[in-house]
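Operator note (shift B, R.M.): manual run for Myb/SANT-like domain-containing protein requested after the automated queue skipped it. Running by hand, logging everything below so the morning shift can see what happened. Input copied straight from the record, untouched. If output looks odd, do not overwrite the archive copy; leave it for review.
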Amino acid sequence: MSTSVVEVSGEKVKAMWDKRLIEILCDICIKKILKGNKPGTHFTKDGWWKIMTNFKKETSKAYSQRQLKNRWDALKKEWKA
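Run finished. Output pasted below as returned.
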């Protein structure tokens, strides 16, 4: 299980990632790519907002855009390796 840390109101809140959460994030991101929320190399602001709301709806975890983006970027690096 991996983690990423984001500061919220002066406190550090860790995002705990297990296999299920990673699969949910990937599924949501793939759906948003197919819907055109990633016109180039990056998701649009609206795309990230939709990813965050769908992720919260499916997992009941309110991870920030930064936490989701950090995990997405780390997964891309792992995949390329």
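Quick read of the result: The chain has a mean pLDDT of 86. DSSP finds three helices and two strands in the chain.
Leaving this for review. - R.M.
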